[in-house]
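Please decode residue identities from the backbone states below.
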């Protein structure tokens, strides 16, 4: 560790790189196998001049936080075993690599890496930066050539100066009854490897509550011990897990297209907690507010008391409950959500909600954009606490190739004084423009939603495009959806590394499909 002060480190190490350089092997640009690509400040790579990355290698870490070198050494041992490179802290007088700094908010995650004949060097100001540097090196390192089994690794000669585009980079993951715990862990680990720093976990009837054991489907796999285990994994890897509880619409904890209801289908005695039919919570029933608060406390504690809590609140319907119909709908909703947001705040966290109920579906300003509200629910944009984070999900229905450059609904919430996060889904070509727009207006960040896609090519595209957009770089490749070579090594490598970390051997936990040929096909053919 250098003996200079942290302030001195910042003044020496934070050098703005004025001109962008993004260069690979010009004869074979596809040799760059890294996701997301570095923020285009500086990236030079040459696999034709490999650098040893094995037990004979010393990796010098220049970071004022001693945990940086400690974390790296421990994970090198985990990843590479006897072939792990040696890790040492920098000493006074050794060159400090210039670290990019787009703005002070992103500085803590910036890093620089150099690998050449002189060795391997990492510069970062925090443990977070060291992690991102390590994930970059891990994806780029390949086994030495010409041996039967792996005997150490090599890196391309490279110089990378890298920093994220947005401070808050989240992926939204749904824990459906059909999702196995291994899939959820795999998605969380992969998100971290692709440099997402938050994962919002929505239970969909799978969270096993001790306070309210009726509030889940039978035999839920999202147990307290499993949640806490995943939270610890996330903390180690640099990704914070954030719980979501649908506190208004989606009270069934099922998708509207199934008509399933995790409570009323199996425990109809709890019907008074919900609107008739079960889609919304009954907002005038004080027992519903009590239950929601108790679930918030339980989930927040199980998730390690993270700085955010997502309250859902999308796609609700007007009340048919005779008690709820006695009060103005907008007033009732605002009181309900504001009270819950204040309760979340009392626990030291910021509430997050989906945006759609805050936009009047009949307002011509929002034509072509996602909106689910009415004139009364739209008043929420004027009465909600301004520290509630608005998650604006714009999916470009009907045209997933849309590449618009402005997002009026996000601008609207930003002008109202809310922190706003852009939330894409499968509109791949719109993801980077959306992230760029959020950065331009000083928005909160981006939340890549995945919903029922934790398998399949759309899952691959969501992670690849979402991670790249949040980091500020395009997906490698050209053509529709950034076409990659026939075998997508850029995604296969991190996916396989995650499987190694989980010590997965089950066929179902490899690749991005459960089966290469669906079992039903074999039966029918």
């Amino acid at each position: 560790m250098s003996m200079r002060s942290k302030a001195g480190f910042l003044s020496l190490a934070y050098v703005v790189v004025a001109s962008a350089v993004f260069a690979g092997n010009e004869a074979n640009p596809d040799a760059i196998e890294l996701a997301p690509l570095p923020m285009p400040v500086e990236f030079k790579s040459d696999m034709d001049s490999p650098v040893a990355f094995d037990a004979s290698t010393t990796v010098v870490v220049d970071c004022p936080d001693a945990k940086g070198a400690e974390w790296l050494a421990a994970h090198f041992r985990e990843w590479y075993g006897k072939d792990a490179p040696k890790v040492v802290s920098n000493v006074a007088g050794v060159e400090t690599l210039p670290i990019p700094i787009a703005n002070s908010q992103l500085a803590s995650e910036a890093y620089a890496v150099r690998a050449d004949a002189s060795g391997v060097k990492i510069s970062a100001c925090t443990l977070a930066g060291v992690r991102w540097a390590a994930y970059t090196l891990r994806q780029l390192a390949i086994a030495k050539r010409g041996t039967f089994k792996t005997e150490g690794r090599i890196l391309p000669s490279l110089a990378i100066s890298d920093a994220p585009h947005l401070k808050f980079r989240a992926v939204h993951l749904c824990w459906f009854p059909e999702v196995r715990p291994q899939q959820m862990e795999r998605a969380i680990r992969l998100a971290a490897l692709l440099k997402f720093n938050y994962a919002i976990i929505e239970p969909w009837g799978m969270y096993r509550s001790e306070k309210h054991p009726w509030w889940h489907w039978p035999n839920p796999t999202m147990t307290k011990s499993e949640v806490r285990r995943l939270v610890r994994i996330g903390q180690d890897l640099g990704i914070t897990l954030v719980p979501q509880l649908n506190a208004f619409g989606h009270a069934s904890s099922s998708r509207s297209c199934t008509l399933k209801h995790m409570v009323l289908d199996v425990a109809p005695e709890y019907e008074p907690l919900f609107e008739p039919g079960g889609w919304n919570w009954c907002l005038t029933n004080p027992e519903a507010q009590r239950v929601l608060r108790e679930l918030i406390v339980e989930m927040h504690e199980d998730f390690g008391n993270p700085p955010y809590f997502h309250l859902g609140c999308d796609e609700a319907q007007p009340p048919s409950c005779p008690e709820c119909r006695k009060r103005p709908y907008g007033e009732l909703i605002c009181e309900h959500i504001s009270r819950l947001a204040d309760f979340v705040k009392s626990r030291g966290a910021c509430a997050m909600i989906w945006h759609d109920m805050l936009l009047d579906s009949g307002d011509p300003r929002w034509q072509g954009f996602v909106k689910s509200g009415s004139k009364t629910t739209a008043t929420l944009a004027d009465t909600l606490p301004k520290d509630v984070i608005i998650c604006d999900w714009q999916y470009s229905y009907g045209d997933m190739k849309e590449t618009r450059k402005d997002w009026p609904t996000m601008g609207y919430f930003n002008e109202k004084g809310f922190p706003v996060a852009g939330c894409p889904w499968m509109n791949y070509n719109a993801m980077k423009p959306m992230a760029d727009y959020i950065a331009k207006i000083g928005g909160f960040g981006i939340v890549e939603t995945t919903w029922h896609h934790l398998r399949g090519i759309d899952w691959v595209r969501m992670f690849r495009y979402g991670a790249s957009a949040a980091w500020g770089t395009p997906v490698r490749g050209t053509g529709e959806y950034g076409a990659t070579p026939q075998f997508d090594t850029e995604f296969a490598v991190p996916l396989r590394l995650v499987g190694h970390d989980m010590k997965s051997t089950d066929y179902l936990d490899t690749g991005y499909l459960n089966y290469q040929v669906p079992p039903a096909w074999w039966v029918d053919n």
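Observation: Residues 329-346 form the longest helix (18 residues).
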